[in-house]
């Protein structure tokens, strides 16, 4: 007798494992299938290991570049690259084990193996050698197989010289020179990481600015900071080809028609991701795809086959862990019949964890103008914040964008220390449909960096105190 | 329980009440200060010796009474009390009804009761009971709520009907298992849920009092008490946010800001269905509402809108019962349809319609038109039709009987000194609009003919201005063009009468020629007048119709 489940989840990333726990809470007999450790890209090869690496270099950065400011001197400051990598791997290891425990605690069946849909209600499990180990049936199937780095033929990834983020966070040796193609969050984080350690980093971005989805003012501020660190930046630049030549990779770029060839030990390709939709039965079942991702109704996360759902990176942008989790929860609650407002894709925070950190939610100034809003913009530089002064993090600012007519908080943009923590207040304010004065009149603790959000709101209405 | 003036010392024999901290109907907790007294020894505050509701104050502030006098009474209602009542109920009344079994009290009452296990596990505090979708038959697995007869915050008596359901077997009304207050509605109208799903929560605190409350005043107090009990015992926030209806109560700063800028009243806000978290009205909801309000026109009042909403849900409930959904195409109404719907119901709900009919011999006019229409077309560039003559007759009759050219304003009659004659125009594919001829009283047949052609044409080509459709004083509707012989039209509000024009037909009629009866073939047309009996009685309506007939039949052949 094959095992029968109410919900089977294929993929145990932040989409899948979170959906599994919510399903168990709601009383569904649930199974989660993953061929790897639970936690997906996020916990194994994404969010968590990169954030661990970044902490190492932040400490190093502070001591090396700001030690004097704090009166801290070291005779000889050095680091051990291997240990830095090991710390990150160790954290990833422990945290994924914790997720396994969490799954067990919630009495969710966990199957390790490659899952393949053989019918609308059946999944077959294959082991590493492709041998079938078991079959199960399920009333509902949630696909959460995630995504993988996108590759292009002119940038042939060999995982040795031309690498993806996965290799970049697990190198045996620190590269002397690194060319990073793509200045999105992943590219930017590795640029910061390796440049602090002394690698000569070159960043290549096709669009106008690094972090091109962020507010232009934020991108420009970060660009200046990165240039000061010695990172070479090429924007509006296309990579024509990358070729491995012996121990080196040569990269031909084209900036406004001007061609140039760069060379480095390693090239990191960080130009987006593509959904994992192949090889596990989707084609055979006729699950509808859209641009290499699964097509779903973003209210129910149903595919064109009603009892098959899909969530997370595999359904397309924004490829973010918190989005995958939110979708997983909403999907399962929907199956249970719980009615909640749909995931609000206009209110998803986006964070980049370099220093200074970048975080934003809602519309950029340019986008808001394009949509025809009349704006009231409030800005507050950390330079004017007492807390920022005290902790020696005076770079950056908070920028809040309001609709002049109704006072809606259209967007918030922060660059600076702890920006990624601070943004939550802006997200909540937007979710609760707060106006500028809701923020201004909420007493913020002093001294904190979060006061800067209050001051930025006040600035929009000409009421800021410290500028 | 009686509260007495306490003895504050050996030699103290009386005390003065300085201040009451509680008023009648307030909930009082054990040891909570209820009043302050002053004696010749000491001033002090007196705490309650038991919890309950302050039911009576017998000594008012400033009065001095002897020690031992009863100054107030506390009624020990509340959790303990209602618990007892519930338990009694369920053990003595091992109910035979299916419904009763579905009711699953929760929280502290769990042990006392045999309850539906699934639902009682849901954590509800205090003296709330949950009402489930009842099983209406062996094979019935789900039910649709058609209508809530009560809203959140309403007091409900035992066995009073609280909602109506429809299942594939039967439609029925569901009585309340207990007296109490409806504190939460979990399943909205038109929603279908499985049998056993909790659809509402009822607070049964104070139910004893609700049952006792016979006169109006008592009832009011009861409601008040129930609310404040809740503030103390269960989830106050939830009750608070529910007080104004499902999901109502809380409006975000942004929604309030939009409401203020767009002149959306609080009543309107409360009428908007929220789609946000916990049923809140979101930015999107209010913007959609404003958009709709704009297109629906200023004249449609909120009340009407609410009504039509209610009606929509009822009518869709009816369709659900009669048809299989797969056999029916659901077509959203366009704006004009919604407006017509609102106007018609509004009119029917406003005016007392009575309809009279008169037959008019149109032969003379018929002949005149046939012989003169080309000539008049040439000389005046006007196409003369029956309608022009009828309009002319109406104008003349309105002048003679101006009360028909009026509207009602509360207890006053607004008799118009101008005649703006409305002409109902059908527009493709299924619309209807009533533009009016301004200053129709100053026009002759040709002027009216031109004006009718003009507004009809502009109505069909969508070139009417808001001015064209406002301030009408009387309306003519010509269904005769479709061959209809007679109809009973609905008055165009706020007017008080409408004339329906039937198709003219050749008919054999008995006429008197030179003193003897003969049968002749004449062009006969039926005119009907629907008039608002609140203002226009049968006599006036009849005389008005008769006057129109006379003008038309006695047409002299000169225009
Ligand atoms: C370097 C890097 C840094 C990142 N940093 C951040 C960040 O800071 N913040 C953020 O929000 N996001 C970050 N992301 C993105 C984030 O990791 C993803 O959005 C997130 O992991 C998506 O979750 P998911 O559950 O949809 O898919 P995944 O996490 O990709 O999980 C999919 C899982 O499915 C399994 N699987 C796939 N196919 C099968 C099959 N057929 N059978 C069995 N198992 C299968 C895989 O083994 C995998 O475990 C980062 C990504 C990268 C690469």
CATH class of the domain at 337-553 in chain B: Alpha Beta
Helical run tally of chain A: 14
The secondary structure category of chain B is alpha+beta
- The average pLDDT of chain B is 77
Note the total helix count of chain B. 16
Query: How many E-type strands of chain A?
Result: 24
Strand count, sense and barrel status of the largest sheet of chain A are: 7 strands, mixed
Question: Your description of this structure?
Answer:
The complex is a heterodimer of chains A (467) and B (559). Chain A has 467 residues and is an alpha/beta fold. In chain A, 33% of the residues lie in helices and 27% in strands. Chain A is built from 14 helices and 24 strands. In chain A, the strands form 6 sheets. In chain A, strands 1, 2, 3, 4, 5, 6 and 19 form a 7-stranded mixed sheet that branches. Chain A has a 5-stranded parallel sheet with strand order 8-15-9-10-11. In chain A, β10, α7 and β11 (232-234) form a beta-alpha-beta unit. In chain A, α1 runs parallel beside α9 (321-336) and α3 (47-70) crosses α4 (81-105). Chain B is α+β, with helices and mostly antiparallel strands. Among the domains of chain B are: 1-77, OB fold (Dihydrolipoamide Acetyltransferase, E2P), CATH 2.40.50.100; 337-553, Chloramphenicol acetyltransferase-like domain (Chloramphenicol Acetyltransferase), CATH 3.30.559. In chain B, the strands form 7 sheets. In chain B, strands 18, 21, 24, 25, 26, 27 and 28 form a 7-stranded mixed sheet that branches. In chain B, strands 9-10-17-15-12 form a 5-stranded antiparallel sheet. In chain B, β27 and β28 form a beta hairpin. The termini of chain B are far apart. Bound molecules: flavin-adenine dinucleotide.
